[in-house]
Structure formats: C-alpha cells, structure tokens
Design brief:
The chain has 655 residues and is mostly helical. 65% of the residues lie in helices and 5% in strands. Among the domains are: 141 residues; 84 residues, Serine Threonine Protein Phosphatase 5, Tetratricopeptide repeat, CATH 1.25.40.10; 127 residues, no CATH class. A hairpin with a 4-residue loop joins strand 4 and strand 5. The longest helix is centred in the C-terminal third of the chain and has 17 residues. It binds one DNA strand of 10 nucleotides through helix 7, helix 9, helix 11, helix 13 and helix 15. It holds the Pfam family PPR.
Length: 655
DNA sequence: CTAGGGTTAG
C-alpha cells in the first residue's frame, strides 16, 4: 500500500468552495490533474467528490482515464471501503459495466477488500457485462467474507446461473435460500422459475409457477421461454395466450421461440400481430425476426424486414447488421449480404464469420477463405465458430489440403481447441473427398470420444461413396450412442439400397418400425409474390392443388423425353415399383417447383427451401428441369444451397 | 437497487 501523502486531520475540513466548483465543472483529464495537484497542495482530502465527478464523466470510459482515476483513489490519504464503493458506484452507473470489473480487479490487487455495499455493485456489473463466472466467484467470496447476501444479490446471482445454464450453482443458491429461511418474494420466485426454465427443468419450474399467484409477467415469460426452448411450442403458446398484459419482452420470447423451433412463418405472423397492436420492437425483437426470416429463406419477407429495420433506425446496430448478412445469405442473396458486409465499417468476429458462412453455404470456398485472410489482416481474432465455417467451406468446395491446413492452424496459430463440431467438419471434408480410411483414422485419433455428429459425418460420406462395409460399422457405432437416431437408419438403408441389397433395406426398415423410430417428415416451401406456400409430400392442401398436379404430370413427361427416370432406389417403404415411382414423384420440392413453374417466366429464377436434405432423385429432377424449362432453380436444403442452371448443380453432385 | 427476450456454427 502507498503511504498517505496528506495529513489525516485534513479530512475533517470542508472543501473550499472554489475547489469544489472547479471539480464540478472539470471535463478533461488534464483539467482533473491540475485540480488534483491543487488538492494535494491544499492539504484537503476531498478525494471522494473528486472521484465521484471524475468517474461519472464519460471520459472515465477510456482505459487511460480510468487508470488515472484509480491511481487517485489508491493514492488518496484514506483509500477505504466507502471511497472504493463510491468510486465503483459512480463508475458502474456512468460507464460500461466492464470498467467496474477492471476497477475491482485493481482495487483487489492493491489490497482493498469489498464491503457489503460494494458487493452488489460489482456483482451487478459482472452480471450485466456477461461475466457470469466472475459473478459466481464474487458470490463465493462474499459468503466466505461473512457478508450475508440479500434478495438483490440472490436474484442477480440466480440470473447469472440462469444465463450460463448452471443448474448446479443455481440449485445451490436455491438450497441456500431455503436453508436460511428467507421469505421468497415475487422477484425471487421469478428468478428461481427463470433459473429452472433456462436450464430445461420445466417440471421444477412448473411446480414453482403453479405456486405463484397471481401470475406475474416475468415468471410467465420465463415459462414461455423455457417451454419454447424445449420445442414444446404449443405449451409455450398456451401460457402466452393466457397472459393478459403482454409487454415487449414476452412478445420477443414467443417470437424467438417460433424462430428457433423451425416455425419461422409463425414467428413472422406473431411479429405482425405485435406490430398491429402498436407494440414497438427493440433490437432484441428485431434480431429474432431477422433470424426467423433467415431460417425461412423468404426473399420478399427479407426485403420487407430490411426496410423495416432501416425505417426504424436499427440499421446502425452491429448485431442487427450481422443478422442481416446471415439473413440475406440464407435467402440466397449473397450479393445483398455482401453489400451490407462491405458497408459495415466496424466488423466484429460475428460479421466476418457470417460472411464466411454465407460463401460456404453457397459452395464458394475460395471466397470464404479470402474473407478469412482479410479478417486476419484486419487484426480480428477468429473464434471456434469461425473455424467451423471455414472447414465447412472447404468441405463443400472439395478443398482438402486447405481444410487440413486450417485445422492445424486453428490449433497451432490460434490456440483454439477443436471440439466435436470441428472434428465432424474434418471427417466430412475427408469423407466427401473419398478419403474414407483417413477419415476413420482421424476419428480414432481424437482426444475424446466421438459423438453422433462425428460418426454421422462419416456415415454420410459412406452413403455418397457407397461404402457398404464401412457404413455398417459406422452405423453400428452411431446406434450404440443413440439407438433412436433416425438419420443413422435412413443413411444405412440408403447405403444398402444403393448396393441393391433389398433384404438389408427391409431389415433396417423393420428395425425402425419395431423401435418406433420415425424419419423426420420432409417439407418444402416456396415464396411467390410475398406469400409462402408450404408443401408436404403428396400434399393436396393447396387451393391450386389440381393445377399443381397437372403441371407436375406435364413436367415429368417432358423430363422423361430427355432421359429422366425416377430413381426409386432410396424409397424406404416396401411398395410395388409403380407405387414407389408415384411416391418419389410427389416429393414436396417437386410440388413446390411445379407451382414455381406455373407462376414464373422463362429466364427467371425459382427459389425453394426444404427442411431436410434433398434426395437423389429430386436433385437429378431439378438439374434437368433447370435446363428444359430455362429457369435457374435455387434450392436450399438443411445445410447448403444448390444452384441449378442449364442442367448442372453448383454442388458438383456431392452434398 | 434485484427477476423475463437476442446475432455467427451444430
């Protein structure tokens, strides 16, 4: 600790008015330094008002002035808890909460401990700036220093646990509350409900919620959020519908719930409803809406949302711009994505990664790598997600050596630890390039046990290259990990079908039936004139169904003239050949295409999206249709875009 | 004072 530079008795004297006035009107660091010198000469200890003012100014946000403020504090005659607390409070209310944490770190290193008044301030700052682990650490420190946490602290710390999905710590806090016989008020109850619903423990959350009366807005929102996260969107909706006073936060929770449960259409519908009721969205709502648009891949809707964003002043917010880049990529408009990207002056790691992902999705591996190089030259540090996108870009473009190099570089140059997803991408990359043995060895060299994603990548590669033997082995491993993995059964039977091993196909199918494993239902949608039309397989729900089926017949006949013949090999159901033919011709994307052909002209492009991967037959069908009907067909499947033009697909038939 | 909703990948 530094020695005091002033006489302690000086603290008792009132500050001189002129000095006080100078403190209150100071606006720059040099100004403060002058005053500080004067204070030191005068022998008065007025560090507290001095610091309050200094720390309350926006200039305290810069590291150098923060540094100065802290040194004043630490060198003041009596750097005590109260002063430290005042400084921290001033700092936390005026600036980025992170500075409060920085300040706290410096105070600690200088030997100053926090008192019971400082803990809430720093804890809140930690929670607000997303430093949840630090918040938990502070909570432990606080308890061991004998300070009794009050409701405010407990609610804050529960929120930190909820956000980090840390049920262990959160549960401990809950026990602590029960053991210390603290009465649980509405605020704490909501915090607890939020903890359990964030962690997916809906039974516990529901029990606590049932005990609540009347139901409060915050607790109900937490319930909506929790059920939506688990995919129980109908339950979430019924709670939402029962809420009488809805505010922006609960609208947003419900909208993002739909957006993330693959119901982007519902998300947008709800957004419209909210809009009509006059509830003004904020940036968080807009992020969900943009993300819903992205998942839907609806270009007209996307344009509308973009205009809405511009009109309502959200367009300068970086996270919004990032979401827009992603949205346009996923809607098939790489050009628009690129424009926003180029017009974004300050780019963070998400901006760059979104652009890389955009190129990757469209199979443009070289551009993805170029964006990465640019990012590095701009000094932006890539994260784990960036590398997933890069590997994925290499994989879809067949850039094997580049992929290997990037994987190594991730570890060596960027000191990032590859996770399951990264290994999965590498396996995919090697597998696609027919390096199946190397892919298997790669899996065996992993430092941790491979999961279903990693095995699934290899199984997919076995399907592409028709490796029955390895496919069987991999499927077995995969089913050991997850006996109900629908993808494993489907891929395995596809592998058998490709090898014409019908007995085995039947066996896999029976196994699925006995276990009750259901293949995810495929559906497609197409946007025409701002309207989204959805199709299931064999769907006759569309009002123009007759017209669509008539068109489909016509299309099939024309394609058969140029050599198309339905590839029934992958039909899993045991049917007569004629029925198989019918089944495959009624796949949802073919229905969507038929409608698209009716409502578009030669030379235009047709955009279709699908929730699962496109089948072999539909892929061939689209290629031929693009040539015969002179349309560019853009099909987005679960992971990537296929651009069909003049009978060729951009994916090079590996997908 | 404190509690509820968010962007890149999988």
């Amino acid at each position: 600790m530094e020695t005091a530079t002033l006489q302690p008795l000086a603290a008792a004297l009132p500050p001189s008015p002129s000095l006080n006035h100078r403190i209150l009107t100071a606006t720059t660091v040099p100004h403060f330094k002058q005053i500080h010198a004067q204070i030191l000469r005068s022998g008065l200890d007025i560090s507290a008002p001095f610091l309050s003012r200094l720390l309350a100014l926006p200039l305290a946000s810069s590291p150098s002035s923060l540094d100065y403020a802290l040194s004043v504090l630490l060198h003041s005659p009596s750097p005590d808890f109260r002063l430290a607390n005042r400084a921290l409070r001033a700092l936390s209310s005026a600036t980025d909460p992170r500075w409060t944490l920085v300040a706290y770190g410096r105070l600690r290193r200088a030997g100053l401990a926090l008192d019971r008044f400082s803990f809430p301030t720093v804890l809140r700052a930690a929670a607000r700036s997303g430093c949840y682990n630090e918040a938990l650490q502070l909570f432990d420190e606080m308890k061991s220093s004998g300070v009794i946490p009050d409701r405010v602290i407990l609610a804050t710390i529960l929120s930190a646990c909820a956000r980090t999905r840390n049920l262990t710590s959160g549960g401990a806090v809950h026990s602590y509350i029960v053991e210390s016989n603290l009465s649980i008020d509405a605020h704490l109850q909501s915090a607890l409900i939020s903890l359990y619903s964030s962690c997916g423990s809906m039974d516990t959350a529901q029990r606590l919620y049932d005990d609540t009366s009347p139901k409060n807005l915050v607790a109900s929102t937490a319930m909506v959020f929790g059920y939506a996260k688990l995919g129980k969107i109908a339950v979430a909706r019924s709670i939402f519908d029962q809420m009488t006073d809805k505010d922006l936060v609960c609208w947003s929770a419900m909208i993002s719930g739909y957006a993330e449960s693959d119901q982007p259409n519902e998300a947008l519908k709800l957004f419209n409803e909210m809009h009509l009721l006059g509830v003004k969205p904020d940036q968080i709502t807009m992020l969900s809406v943009i993300s819903a648009c992205a998942n839907m891949g609806a270009r007209d809707q996307a344009k509308w949302v973009h205009i809405f964003v511009d009109k309502n002043g959200f367009h300068q917010i970086l996270s919004i711009r990032n979401a827009l880049i992603d949205m346009y990529s996923k809607c098939g408009s790489l050009v628009d994505a690129r424009t926003i990207f180029d017009e974004t002056a300050f780019k963070d790691v998400i901006t760059w990664t979104s652009m890389i992902t955009g190129f990757a999705m469209h199979g443009n591996g070289r551009s993805a790598l170029a964006v990465f190089d640019h990012m590095i030259s701009e000094g932006v540090k890539p994260n784990g997600v960036t590398f997933i996108s890069l590997l994925y870009a290499c994989s879809h473009a067949g850039l094997v050596d580049e992929g290997r190099r990037i994987f190594e570089s991730m570890i060596q140059d960027y000191r990032l630890e590859p996770k399951h997803e990264h290994y999965g991408c590498m396996v995919d990359l090697l597998g696609r390039a027919r390096l199946l043995q190397e892919a298997l060895e790669f899996i065996e060299s992993m430092p941790f046990a491979p999961n279903v994603v990693v095995w699934g990548s290899l199984l997919g590669a076995c399907r592409i290259h028709g490796d029955v033997k390895l496919g069987e082995l991999v499927a077995r491993r995969l089913l050991e990990l997850d006996p109900n993995h629908d993808g494993a059964y489907v891929l395995l039977s596809n592998i058998y079908a490709k090898a014409s091993r019908w007995e085995d196909v039947r066996e896999v199918r029976n196994l699925m039936k006995n276990k009750g494993v259901i293949k995810e239902a495929g559906f497609s949608w197409i946007e025409l004139n701002g309207h989204v039309h959805e199709f299931m397989m064999r769907d006759k729900c569309h009002p123009r169904s007759n017209e669509i089926y008539g068109k489909l017949d016509e299309v099939v006949k024309e394609l058969e003239l140029v050599g198309y013949s339905p590839d029934t090999a992958t039909v899993l159901v045991d049917l007569q050949e004629e029925e198989k033919r019918e089944a495959i011709l009624l796949h949802s994307e073919k229905l969507a295409l038929s409608l698209g052909l009716i409502d578009s002209k030669k030379g235009s492009s047709i955009h279709i999206a699908k929730n699962i991967r496109v089948c072999n037959d539909c892929h061939t069908f689209m290629k031929l249709a693009s040539k015969v009907f002179e349309r560019e067909i853009v099909l987005r499947d679960r992971t990537r875009f296929h651009h069909y033009k003049d009978g060729v697909c951009s994916c090079g038939d590996f997908w």
